[in-house]
From TrEMBL:
Name the UniProt record assigns to this protein: TonB-dependent siderophore receptor
UniProt entry keywords in alphabetical sequence: Cell outer membrane, Ion transport, Iron, Iron transport, Membrane, Receptor, Signal, TonB box, Transmembrane, Transmembrane beta strand, Transport
Classification lineage: Bacteria, Pseudomonadati, Bacteroidota, Cytophagia, Cytophagales
Top-level taxon: Bacteria
Subcellular locations according to the entry: Cell outer membrane
GO molecular function, one term: signaling receptor activity
Secretion signal, residue range per the UniProt entry: 1-20
PROSITE patterns found in the cross-reference section: TONB_DEPENDENT_REC_3
Family: Belongs to the TonB-dependent receptor family.
Domain TonB-dependent receptor-like beta-barrel, residue spans: 303-745
Length: 776
């Protein structure tokens, strides 16, 4: 009924489509003659395409006269390109037989993606075996590079608005997923990172951003109970192509990036890809702004159909200031009494961050039924900080005590994963068995000195009369008891090692996933000049079942357990540690569907997550943490992504999340909604591309985001809900694309997150971006 309704609307609006006569149609099957569903068939260098139905059939209407390159593409099969010539009023029958492609569906994802859509049909990281998302018994959200481009997104925070159940906790690399704070632990290509907390990752170099919902410890060891964010880097392609974009926008913001790829050798055994980008901005906050850039080369070596290597190198730099949020009057819930531009940063403050990581991947097909996969990532992160910030105390309701901090930080992560995948059949049952081992370590160290309050020479900050540049940090007194030297009280390290086995059974319409992981974790800290260590082990099961209700709709259910030792920095005694690890479990059930010939995907899920031993800030000491007994998150999520018609693309989501405190030493907070965890949130984005007539080449995008009210660390301070509206206009002419994006159309004043009266984080006011892209 839905498909017929949209067909009626399109027919009414565009009656000229009824008179075009040239048509290409046919059937797509595999080597055994089996019909293939959801295969993309299209004409190169055009927007004309179709997707096969349950009978393996496709049909492309309105094909111009002349010679065309017709291509059929599906993950896990070799792409096939055929030349066809069509005359006026001619209908052509063109069938395809696709061969399975071991280069395409690797257990380690080291192949580029050529298709362009808001919809992503497969996942590697969630199972490590290359699985169609509709067959995976868990909720997986994806934001593709096409949606990132259309929204002109730059940081991770610009992206997660397209994912159900995810919102910003602060403006840092700090998000809430299904009610649980995710401060770190993000993955790149399924490997652990050490991204800086104070700025969000730049996302222009990634193919897509995935959020694997729920505890994923059975695969990735210590992970967030609400979900894991995974970045998939852009990989080399076998076709030579490139694009470059420049843009300018509000607050003196200027950006440029380039993306080029292709073969380095004639036999296409060596491929390359290079992504690079730069941004400079003044920002909308006082004494903020800065610049950032990244460069990301990637090389793949395809020795033969059985052996493949890939190397990724990424370097990111961010030179800015640490934004500690907007201060407000003590005890006042009217956050608009101070302007959203107000900050406590001084002109001489700075924040200089560097991320460098290198990934090596190797995929080896040993036999027709056995393959081996190995990946190693070396991640290095450094930071230099000088900042003026509040000290968590008010002298009067309008005057805050301040502190000054200078800090050098060093953090690294090394991890390696090795696993075998075996695919075989026993009778009518298909098996995909994975057996693996991984090891990772993280190290953190720092130098730091602090001066606090007027007693140390740091001036107070008066909200009624803010002063900037009225003091010199060289004149402050730095208490030696608050100074930290590298390796002397700040050094922390952890090691985690795991063995795991996973089985995926396929029998008729049933898909069963079972897995278990044995985890060994060791934390090492410097306490009073001596090394102190703690060992923690966990056995982590995972179980999921999928049933194919129809050709387009699957039902699924899953149970999984999570384990997350507290961050080694947080575990230090200076923060109140050591603390017990977070332990979690999740029950989830839902349905997944593919509609409009597989071009539109939908997921509906219901879940319950229970977590013990949550770390929260001590309300009586801003520098300390305390451990809470138990929290529970119950919710419902809905997502739709893809195309309704060749011209109309959509990405929409809704989440209801009742995340509450269920056990605590403080009886007053039991039953209260968790901090920065809205009960309701929703988002949508839709784009329409005119494909005929005088408006051909024009595209219009429109969207919105709603986030409900949220508690902060102070139970009296509640952040109000907000609704944002965005729009965009695109025009494509030849190889060029001109775009204009306007965000926060109504100039809404809103807050993405907050801690207390002295630190809330305002969102960006109305802003625009004009961009020019050229493809070559």
């Amino acid at each position: 009924m839905i498909a017929k309704r949209y067909f009626t609307i399109i027919t009414f609006l565009f009656p000229t489509l009824l008179f075009a006569q040239q048509t290409i149609q046919g059937k797509v099957v595999d080597q055994n003659g089996n019909k293939l569903l959801s295969v993309s068939v299209g004409i190169l260098n055009s927007k004309l395409s179709a997707t096969t139905n349950e009978n393996g059939e496709y049909r492309i209407n309105n094909v111009p006269k002349g010679e065309h390159q017709l291509v059929a593409y599906f993950v896990g099969y070799k792409k096939q390109t055929l030349t066809v010539t069509i005359q006026k009023d001619q209908n052509i029958q063109q069938n395809f037989t696709l061969e399975e492609n071991t280069r395409e569906l690797q257990q380690v994802e080291i192949i580029g993606v050529e298709n362009e859509s808001y919809n992503n049909a497969y996942t590697f990281s969630a199972t490590r075996t290359g699985t169609m998302i509709k067959d995976a018994p868990l909720s997986i959200s994806t934001v593709t590079k096409e949606l990132i481009l259309d929204q002109q997104a730059y940081y991770l925070g610009d992206v997660v608005r397209n994912v159900s159940g995810v919102n910003q906790y602060t403006i840092y690399n700090d998000f809430t997923v299904r009610g649980y704070r995710n401060q770190d632990g993000q993955l790149v290509n399924g490997l652990k990172t050490a991204f800086n907390f104070w700025t969000q990752p730049i996302i222009g170099l990634y193919e897509r951003v995935e959020v694997i919902k729920g505890p994923a410890s059975a695969l990735f060891a210590n992970t967030n109970p609400g979900g894991t964010i995974n970045f998939v880097t852009k990989k080399p392609l076998t076709v030579q192509q490139g694009s470059a974009t420049v843009s300018a926008g509000s607050f003196n913001t200027y950006k440029a990036n380039v993306d080029v790829t292709g073969p380095l050798t004639k036999n296409e055994k060596v491929l390359y890809r290079l992504n690079a980008g730069y941004q400079t901005t003044d920002g909308f906050r006082d004494n903020m702004g800065g610049e950032s850039f990244y460069i990301a080369p990637s090389v793949s070596y395809i020795q033969n159909e059985n052996t493949r290597f890939n190397v990724d190198v990424v370097y990111m730099q961010n030179n800015t200031k640490l934004d500690r949020g907007k201060p407000n009057y003590e005890g006042s819930t009217d956050l608009n009494q101070t302007p959203i531009t107000l900050s406590t940063s001084q002109p001489g403050d700075y924040l200089k961050l560097n991320n460098l990581y290198t990934t090596f991947s190797w995929n080896q097909k040993i036999t027709d039924w056995l393959s081996f996969n190995s990946s190693y990532m070396m991640f290095r992160s450094t930071g230099e900080l000088a900042e003026h910030r509040t000290n968590g105390k008010y002298i009067t309701p309008s005057v805050l005590e301040m502190r000054y901090v200078e800090r050098d930080e060093y953090e690294n992560a090394d991890n390696i994963t090795n696993y075998f995948v075996s695919k075989f059949n026993t009778g009518k049952v298909g098996h995909t068995v994975m057996v693996g081992f991984d090891y990772s370590s993280k190290t953190y160290d720092k130098n730091e000195r602090q001066a606090r309050g007027e007693a140390d020479g740091v001036p107070d900050f008066d909200l009624d009369n803010p002063q900037y540049g009225n003091s010199n940090p060289n004149d402050y007194y730095y208490d030696p008891n608050r100074s930290i030297q590298m390796g002397a009280g700040s050094y922390t390290q952890n090691h985690t090692m795991g063995f795991y086995i996973q089985e995926q059974l396929d029998y008729k319409k049933w898909h069963l996933l079972m897995g278990v992981r044995q985890e060994y974790y060791k934390d090492v800290r410097i306490e009073n000049g001596e090394k102190v260590s703690k060992d923690q082990n966990a056995l982590l099961p995972r179980f999921g079942l999928t049933y194919e209700l129809t050709n387009t709709i699957n039902l699924y259910g899953t149970y999984t357990e999570g384990f997350q030792p507290q961050d080694y920095k947080m575990n230090a005694s200076q923060n109140g540690g050591p603390f017990d690890p977070r332990k979690s479990n999740m029950w989830e059930t839902g349905a997944k569907g593919e509609f409009f010939d597989g071009k539109l995907s939908a997921t509906a899920s219901v879940y319950m997550i229970t977590v013990n031993n949550i770390l929260v800030q001590d309300p009586n000491d801003v520098d300390k943490l305390i451990q809470r007994g138990e929290e529970q998150s119950k919710g419902f999520e809905l997502e739709l992504n893809g195309q309704i018609t060749p011209a109309l693309s959509i990405s929409t989501n809704y989440a209801f999340n009742n995340a509450t405190i269920t056990a605590s030493d403080n009886p007053e907070e039991v039953g209260r909604q968790k901090e920065n965890a809205p009960k309701h949130q929703a988002g949508f984005w839709t784009k329409y591309d005119f494909q005929r007539g005088t408006l051909r080449g024009l595209g219009i995008g429109f969207g919105g985001q709603y986030v409900g009210d949220r508690f902060t660390n102070n139970p009296e301070l509640v952040l109000p809900d907000y609704m944002l509206w965005d729009m965009a206009v695109y025009y494509n002419i030849g190889a060029f694309r001109v775009s204009a994006n306007i965000k926060n159309l109504t100039n809404e004043t809103y807050y993405v997150g907050g801690y207390n009266y002295d630190r809330v984080f305002p969102g960006m006011p109305r802003n625009f971006t004009l961009g020019l892209t050229v493809k070559f």
